[in-house]
Specification:
Distance between the termini of chain A: 43 Å
Number of strands of chain B: 17
CATH superfamily of chain A: Dihydropteroate synthase-like
Strand order of the largest sheet of chain B: 10-9-8-7-6-3-12-11
CATH superfamily of the largest domain in chain B: Dihydropteroate synthase-like
Number of domains of chain B: 3
Helix content of chain B: 25-40%
Largest interface: A-B, 42 and 45 residues
Largest sheet of chain B: 8 strands, parallel
Strand content of chain B: 15-25%
Radius of gyration of chain B: 27 Å
Number of helices of chain A: 6
Shape of chain B: globular
Structural class of chain A: mainly alpha
Distance between the termini of chain B: 68 Å
Low-confidence stretches of chain B: none
Low-confidence stretches of chain A: none
Radius of gyration of chain A: 17 Å
CATH topology of chain A: TIM Barrel
Shape of chain A: elongated
Strand order of the largest sheet of chain A: 1-2
Structural class of chain B: alpha/beta
Helix content of chain A: 40-55%
Mean pLDDT of chain B: 93
Oligomer: heterodimer
Number of helices of chain B: 17
C-alpha cells in the first residue's frame, strides 16, 4: 500500500464479505483506483455457480451505485481448473471424459469464459493454449458492433 | 400488458376454496402476477375471466418443447435475467450437428456414437439431447433418407436445418408424429416455411440480425398460425450475440414484449462460444462436432448454471458402504454437500480399498463452509456416529476426519471416548494415498 501498488482484497465467494474488505482497505487510506478485488471462484463442476452469481451480484451492485463494489474483478480460473481431477488425471478415468489434453484445456477455458460472462475483468490462466483461446473470446466480447 | 395481483384477484372467484393450493384467492392472484403458478390450478375460474387472464398468465418466454418418440427437450419459460434472482429452469438442449451429404453408414455411426454417450457427474447421468441435421446437399430425397437413417439409431429429438421449404417438408414427412424444430425462416422464405411447419406441427426457428428484424418476422409468422418459435440472433461476434440475447430476454421479461417472448438457439463455433451460450440464455445449443472432451465440461457447466441457488444439492446423510467394507475396514467422515460427497466417494471407490463413509448432515455445505457455519462440528459428527449405529457395524473404532477440520480432533476424542480419531488429508484427491500408507 505504501509504495503505490495495487491491493487485491480476496474474499471467499460472498458479496458482503467482499464489500466489507473493500471498505476496510479503503478506510486504511488505499486510493479506490488502486483496488482490484478477487471475489474468488471455483472450477466448472466444483461450485462455479457460486462464484458466477456472486460476481454478477457484485457487478449489479456496482452499476446501481454502490461505490464499495465498484472495482474491477480479478479471478484465478487457471489455478482452480488445474486443481480438478478432470484436468490432472489422464489414466484410469472414464472414456466418456475424452482426450485428456483437450479436456484439461477446455476445463480451464470454460471456467474462464464463464467468469468473463459474469463480469471478470482480469482472468489468471495457466495453459498457453487456454490463454490463446480466452484472449480470442475477449477480443470478440469487447468488439463494438457496427451501428 | 401484465395485470397486477389486485387486478387478477378481481377476476378470480374470490371464494378462498384453497383447491389451488394457496390459502386465499388473493395469495393465488399474487403468485399469478409473479408468474409463479399457472391459471389452470384454479378449477372455478370463469371462461370470461380466463380469456382476460390468458394474456397476463401466459409465460413471458414461451415454452418450446421438442418431442420425439420417448424423449423431450424443453426450452423457454424462464422468469429471470440472473440466476440469483430465482433460478433458471429449462437447461438448454445440447444438439450435435450432422450433414446429409455423408454416406448413410458413416452418418449412422456418428449419430450412434453421440447417442450412446453418457457421462456421470455427482450421480447424475449426462447425455446429449438430440441431433441437428443440416441439408448440405439441398436435395429433399437425400434429406429424408438421412432423417430415416438417424431414426434407425437414435430416438432423440431433431432439428432440421435448411432454407428450403421443400427440403424441410421432405424431412418432416419422414418423421412420425414428432414435434421437431425446423431452422428456419428468414425474410425471403418465411411464408412457405411457416406453412411447412404448420402442416407438420413443427416448431420454427426465425433468423434475424437485429431485434427489429426478429420481432417483425415472429409477428408475421404468428399471424400465419405458427406459435412455437425459436429466435436465432444471427451475429458474428460473442459480444454482439451477448448484447442481443440479453436484450431479447430483458424485453420479454421486463416489458412482456410478446414478439420476442421465445427461447433462442445458438450455433457455437468454439468452446468459448458454447460457454457463453450456456451461461447467457440460449435455449438450444447446436455443436459443430461431437467431442467428448468438450461435451463433458459443457454438460457439467450447464448443470451448475441451472442449479437452483436456493437449494444446495445434497446427498442423504447416512453410512455409505464403498467397495464392500468389512467390520475391520476404515471409517471416513465427510459432509452431505453433493460435490464434497462425490469427490470423496469417487476417490475411495477408485482406490479399490473398502471403507465406510459416514455422511453427516451439514445442511448441504462443504467441509470448510459447514465448519465455519457451525454445521460440521464434533457434536454433529459424534451424533452421526451414534445415530447411524456405527459401533455395531465396525469392529475397529477408528474415525478419519477431513484434514481441513483437524482442529476438531481433540473435541471429538472427548465426545467419542472409545474411538481413535485420525486426521485425513485436506483434499479428496489425496485420500487413496492416505488410505494405503497411513491406515
Amino acid at each position: 500500500m505504501a509504495n503505490g501498488h495495487i491491493v487485491i482484497p480476496r474474499t471467499p465467494m460472498d458479496v458482503n464479505l467482499a464489500k466489507q474488505l473493500n471498505i476496510l482497505i479503503s478506510d486504511m487510506g488505499q486510493p479506490l483506483e488502486r483496488i482490484l478485488m478477487d471475489p474468488t471462484t471455483a472450477a466448472v463442476g466444483y461450485g462455479i455457480e457460486y462464484g458466477f452469481s456472486v460476481m454478477e451480484r457484485l457487478r449489479l451492485a456496482a452499476l446501481q451505485g454502490d461505490n464499495m463494489t465498484q472495482f474491477p474483478m480479478i479471478v484465478t480460473p487457471g489455478f482452480e481448473a488445474w486443481k480438478t481431477k478432470e484436468s490432472k488425471v489422464g489414466e484410469g478415468v472414464p472414456a466418456a471424459w475424452g482426450n485428456w489434453t483437450e479436456r484439461a484445456i477446455n476445463w480451464e477455458t470454460l471456467t474462464a469464459v464463464t467468469l468473463l460472462e459474469s463480469g471478470a475483468d482480469v482472468v489468471v490462466l495457466r495453459h498457453p493454449e487456454s490463454v490463446k483461446r480466452v484472449k480470442a473470446a475477449i477480443q470478440e466480447l469487447v468488439a463494438v458492433p457496427a451501428g | 400488458m401484465a395485470l397486477s395481483g389486485i387486478q387478477i384477484y378481481k377476476l378470480l372467484p374470490q371464494t378462498n376454496c384453497k383447491e389451488c393450493g394457496f390459502p386465499t384467492c388473493l395469495a393465488f392472484a399474487m403468485k399469478l402476477a409473479a408468474k409463479q403458478v399457472e391459471l389452470s390450478a384454479c378449477p372455478y375460474v370463469s371462461e370470461d375471466s380466463k380469456a382476460q387472464l390468458a394474456e397476463s398468465s401466459a409465460p413471458p418466454i414461451r415454452l418450446i418443447s421438442l418431442k420425439s418418440d420417448g424423449a423431450e427437450v424443453k426450452a423457454g419459460n424462464e422468469v429471470v435475467l440472473f440466476r440469483h434472482e430465482k433460478t433458471f429452469y429449462n437447461k438448454p438442449g445440447v444438439f450435435v450437428k450432422v450433414k446429409d451429404d455423408l454416406p448413410l453408414d458413416q452418418l449412422k455411426a456418428l449419430v450412434q456414437q453421440a447417442d450412446s454417450y453418457m457421462v456421470g457427474y455427482v450421480g447424475i447421468e449426462l447425455t446429449v439431447d438430440g441431433f441437428a441435421l443440416e441439408s448440405a446437399s439441398g436435395d429433399g430425397a437425400k434429406f429424408s433418407a438421412a432423417v430415416k437413417a438417424i431414426r434407425e439409431v437414435s430416438k432423440r429429438p431433431l432439428i432440421l436445418i435448411t432454407d428450403s421449404p421443400e427440403v424441410a417438408t421432405a424431412g418432416l414427412s419422414a418423421l412420425n408424429s414428432e414435434h421437431a424444430l425446423v431452422h428456419g425462416a428468414n425474410s425471403a422464405n418465411w411464408e412457405k416455411m411457416a406453412d411447412a411447419a404448420k402442416a407438420h406441427e413443427a416448431a420454427l426457428v426465425v433468423n434475424g440480425d437485429s431485434l427489429d428484424a426478429l420481432a417483425e418476422l415472429t409477428e408475421k409468422i404468428k399471424a400465419k398460425g405458427v406459435e412455437d418459435l425459436v429466435l436465432y440472433p444471427q451475429l458474428p461476434t460473442l459480444g454482439a450475440r451477448l448484447a442481443l440475447e440479453t436484450q431479447i430476454r430483458r424485453l420479454a421479461l421486463k416489458q412482456n414484449f410478446r414478439p420476442l417472448g421465445f427461447p433462442t438457439i445458438a450455433y457455437p463455433n468454439s468452446a468459448a462460444a458454447a460457454t457463453q451460450a450456456v451461461a447467457k440464455y440460449a435455449g438450444f445449443v447446436v455443436l459443430e462436432q461431437f467431442q467428448p472432451e468438450l461435451v463433458y465440461p459443457l454438460l457439467v457447466l450447464r448443470q451448475n448454471i441451472y442449479t437452483d441457488p436456493q437449494k444446495p444439492i445434497q446427498v442423504q446423510p447416512g453410512v455409505y458402504e464403498i467397495n464392500n467394507p468389512k467390520p475391520e475396514d476404515a471409517v471416513l467422515v465427510t459432509t452431505n454437500f453433493s460435490i464434497t460427497y462425490f469427490s470423496v466417494a469417487n476417490e475411495v471407490e477408485g482406490s479399490g480399498l473398502p471403507a465406510w463413509l459416514v455422511v453427516t448432515d451439514a445442511e448441504g455445505m462443504s467441509v470448510l463452509t459447514a465448519w465455519a457455519a457451525g454445521k460440521f462440528d464434533s457434536e454433529r459428527i459424534a451424533k452421526s456416529v451414534k445415530t447411524f449405529n456405527l459401533a455395531d457395524k465396525v469392529s475397529r473404532k477408528r474415525l478419519v476426519i477431513p484434514g481441513h477440520v483437524a482442529v476438531l480432533s481433540g473435541e471429538l476424542e472427548a465426545e467419542l471416548p472409545d474411538w481413535e480419531i485420525r486426521v485425513g488429508p485436506r483434499e479428496a484427491v489425496d485420500i487413496p494415498k492416505f488410505m494405503k500408507q497411513a491406515l
